[in-house]
Amino acid sequence: MSSPWIKRKARLGALLQSNGDEDAEGVALDRILHGQSVIGKTSKTTEIDVTRFTDKDLSIVGTLEYGQFGVIDVVTCSLDGRVYVRKSIEKRFAFKTRDQCNPQIERDILLQALRGNTVWAPHLLCAFQTPTHLNIVMEYAEGGSLWDVLESSPLDGCVVEADLHWWFPQIVSALVWCHSQGFVHRDVKPHNFVLNQVSHIQLIDFGSAAPLLPPRPDGARLVPRRHCLVPCGTCDYISPEVLQAHEEALVALEMSEDEGEARKSRTIDGDGGYGVETDWWSMGAMLYEMAYGVAPFFASDIRHTYMKIMDHKRSLKFKCDPPISESLEDLMRLLLTDRETRLGRTGAAEIMNHPFFDGVEWEDLHIQNHPDGLHLPQFSYVNTQSADSAAPLGSSESQTFSSNSSHSQGFAFSAFFQSSERSGSDLHPTPRPKGSILREQASDYFIGFSWGPTLDAFQASSSPSLFPSATLSVFSSHDPQSTPRPNRALTLARTPFRVISTPFRTPYNYHSVGTSTLPRASTLLRRTAPRRTMSDREAMRQLVDCIGLSARKKVLAAGRTPRGMQRMNLGGFGSVGIGKALRFVPSPIEIQPEMGVIASKFVYEAHASDGGEQSDEREY
User: Three-state SS across 106-162?
Assistant: First the structure.
């Protein structure tokens, strides 16, 4: 039994001489633990290690997902009995991929959510580290995600416009909050909006967020260019300017040898790259997908998805079925357009004042009750010990999230806490460092990461059970701690979250990741919309290949021979491998001091003669 937290916290403060300052205490704690790893344990460091909050205070209930950058578990805390989410990532991997996935940024944003008491993001409980891993513990939203809303829709993945009027004002508000904290999210998609027990949403997964520069005179807010070199996000929601920024970085890398450092400096160290408008594009793609049941630029072939995104003016089409209002179509057109003219670029007021949002009471969104008939996902509780023999739950054995919610088939979680048959994971082991330098850098780079829990973190808590009802049933608005959110493993016409990602992952988020995510029942794939037979991670990898191919063509058009052409031919993939391609090697992108990305991870390939370029013909 753990000592009461108040007693432990007081002793820890005395040992660290923090005087009640949580930030100072976290820095002091990390410095002592780092010193212990270098010179060994002492009686003081041993007492500190025993007294501080660590994994010993948590019990794993089940794994939500194995992301590309970490593992997300549902846990219970022995200090209050409540359910939380813990995200873990290996330090060396986090250090090597810090431009793609930054746990420190995620921890900072969640801490701002706590301190500002926002309703639009989970609140941080604490952040702590072990010799090998970083851990973030935060509130758990038990209502599933907007991806679950899509997947369980009785309208084949479409969401009726009346429901969109409930969800999207909240989505706008959550993104406005994120931007107001000085960050652009960069991985906006249905999977990253989770539902609480009263059907309000929270934005999650800030690992790929990037800091914003101060507003320009016109109100636009941009990301420092050095943060725009590596593409972040998910294939079907990524904006064209994110792809273009990566292409420009590759071209600058090739041209810098002959043209000196001036060109590279302009590309790498310029005042700003893209800005908050990239989140509004992704929201537009989300809105389109929820209205029509398929992402706006989806194609089974990633090369075609890439071309559709880059040529969005011609490729964006609006269907007749299901019918939508003129205001909804107009909003999507204004979001899925060039960044210079995109709605929201100079301020969210442009979006909030659009006719689609007429009548929205923006100040009261967080206290409004959801409308009657709102479609919500249902989740079935199944005893994991008898999952193999359990019969399907009957109507008397389950209850809906809300008696007024539209019908959807419940997700069965019997397999959720069992080992997956799909044991081949996309989560590759962290590459071993080539020397002790990387180990030392990773060890001290995250000093200051630790934070909390606060002295009063566990005072007003109850001890709910994750499976509170004997009826093994579904989410209910009266059921505080429900089953963990489902995970998904395949890239659907969009991109998954739980297999996807979640919170730590986020950058390259080929998100998804997934393969090692625990499967749910056979109801995982519900929609008949087109789907890809690859993970989101693989989809993103191929998308990066397409960017490299485009960059290579520009280098050749400038009369330059790409420096990598004489390197070993490593073989291509799919359709892109037929021609000359800039291959993305599937290992973390390391950081070069002078540029921010490692050039050696992008290897030029020549599979064909000079006349063997692929056709630029677009097929939609």
Answer: HHHHHHHHHHCCCCCCCCEEEEEECCCEEEEEEECCCCCEHHHHHHCCCCCCCCCHH
Catalytic residue among 187, 426, 479, 545: 187
Write the CB contacts of 243 (distance below 8 Å, at least 6 apart in sequence).
231, 306, 309, 310, 543, 547
The distance from CA 610 to its chain's CA centroid, rounded to whole angstroms, is: 40
Rounded to the nearest angstrom, the gap between the alpha carbon of residue 400 and the centroid of all alpha carbons in its chain is 28
Could you tell me the CA-to-CA distances from 572 to 584, 604, 612 in Å, in that order? 10, 10, 14
Q: In this structure, how many other beta carbons lie within 10 angstroms of the beta carbon of residue 198?
A: 13
Instruction: Please report, for the chain, the start and end positions of each structural domain, with discontinuous segments joined by +.
Output: 5-140+434-445, 146-365, 536-605
Closest CA to 196 of 83, 276, 297, 308: 83
d(CA 243, CA 297): 14
Say what the pLDDT of residue 68 is.
63
Domain 146-365, CATH homologous superfamily name and number: Transferase(Phosphotransferase) domain 1 (1.10.510.10)
Token readout for 406 is 């539209």
Question: What is the spatial distance between Cα 464 and Cα 469, in angstroms, rounded to a whole number?
Answer: 11
Q: Which is the CATH superfamily of the domain at 5-140+434-445?
A: Phosphorylase Kinase; domain 1 (3.30.200.20)
The two domains 5-140+434-445 and 146-365 share their CATH topology (first three levels equal): no
Helices and strands (DSSP H and E) totals, the chain: 16, 13
Q: Which of 600, 493, 451 is nearest to 21 (CA)?
A: 451
Among residues 443, 442, 383, the alpha carbon closest in space to that of 413 is found at: 383
Residue 388, judged by CB atoms within 10 A of its CB (0-12, 13-18, 19+), counts as exposed
> Active-site residue 187, yes or no?
yes
- Integer angstrom CA distances of residue 475 from 83, 198, 399, 594: 15, 11, 7, 51
pTM: 0.76
The encoded tokens of residue 506 equal 């986020």
Give per-residue pLDDT as tens, 155-209.
888 999 999 999 999 999 999 999 999 999 999 999 999 999 899 999 999 999 9
pLDDT higher than 60, residue 608: no
